[in-house]
Amino acid sequence: MTTQSVILVLNSGSSSVKYKLLQLKDEAVLLEGSIQGIGESSAKHHVCVDKRFSDNVKQPESSVVINNHQAAFHVIADDMQCFFNGASGIQLYVIGHRVVHGGAQFFAPVELNKDVLTTIESYQHLAPQHLPGNIAGIKTCQELFSQVRQFAVFDTDFHQTIPEHVYRYAVPDDWYKNHDVRRYGFHGLSHQYVAQQAAVYLDKPLNELNLITLHLGNGASACAIKNGQSFDTSMGFTPLQGLMMGNRSGDLDAAVPLYIQEQTGISAEQLEHQLNFESGLVAITGSHNMAEIQHRAEQGDKEASLAIQMYVHQLRRYIGAYMISLGRVDAIIFTGGIGENAAMIRALACDELGRYGVVINAENNQKLKETVSAVHHLRSDVPVLVIKTDEEKQIARNIAMQLNLNK
Prior knowledge:
2 domains; 15 helices; 37% helix
C-alpha cells in the first residue's frame, strides 16, 4: 500500500476551531470539520470526509457540550485517530497551527518548541480573543501527537512587506525601539490566499497586481496589496484597530480609553475586555450576527440600521484611502463570513463608487459561484470579486514552502 503524507491544520478562533487534513502532494482535503460555540450551552460539530474514507469516521452529534478549547482538540483528535491506524496508508507528517500574533519575533512559519511556545504565550495580551485558543491547540497536539513535527504559522507573516513609513506610529521612539509598538496587521493568511486566487482568476501574475482585499467576519480587516505584497492594512499593533467588528471597536480616539478609565476607575483588564468583547456591532445592537442585524434593519430596527451605516461607512473610508494610496486597483475582493454572504454589505460598500470606476451588478451580487464570483457590472473599470477564503489551505502551503516540499 502506498503511504500518503498528510498535514493536519488547526485554525482556532475565540469560540471555534476549524480543522483540515490535507494531502501534501496536491492539497486534496481528506477531512474537514469545525466546532462552533465552544464554552456555550451547545456547540455545533460538523465533519465532512472524503468519500474514500467515509467508513473511517463516525459522524458526530450535531450539538454537543464542549466546555473549552482543550476539550475541543481532544474531540478533533478522535476524528483523526481513525486515519492513522496503519491500515489507511496515511501518515501524519506535520501539524500546522494558525497563530494570530507573531509579534516582533516571528516572520515566517516556525517549528514549535518550548522556547517558541513561551514567546507566543507572552503575546496573549495582544490578541486576547484568539491566542488562548491557539495556545490550547498547540499544547493539546503536543500531548496527543508528540512524535509529529508541529509548526506555528502567523497571521502577521503576510504583512512583513509593509514599508516602515506605513507600519510606524507617530509615538515616542522608546515605544517602538524598546516595546515593539508598530503596525503588525492580521488576517494575513486570508488576504494572502484570496490574492493568489484573484491572480489565477484574472490570469495575471500576482506580482503585477494591485488589490484591495476585505476580510469581513466577526473580526474584519482591509488590506492594500501592491504588486502582490501587503502594503497597508487596517489592523495595527493588535487586532483591535481598524474596521468596526463583531465585538471590537475598531478605530478609536486614543484618548477615549484613558478618559473612561479616569472617569470610572475601571482596571486596564476591564477596559481591554470592553474594547475587545463588548464593542463593535454588539455594542450598538446587542448582537454580532450580521444576518440577524440585517433582518432587524429590514424590519425597521433603528439600532440595526445605525450599525449597518456605521459598518459600511468605515468600509468605504478604507476602500477610498487604499484606492488613492495604490494609484491603480486591479480588483476589490470581499471574503470572510460577512464578505462572502452579506450581499447588502457588498452593495452598500461599493455604492457611490461609480465615479471611481466601481460598479456592482445587483443580480450577480445575489448569485454567487462556489469559489470565485465576479459581482461587478460590465461597465465597471474595477473588477469586484467575492472569493471564498481558505486559511487552512494557505497554512499548508506556507509550511510546505518552508520545508521545501513543493519542489
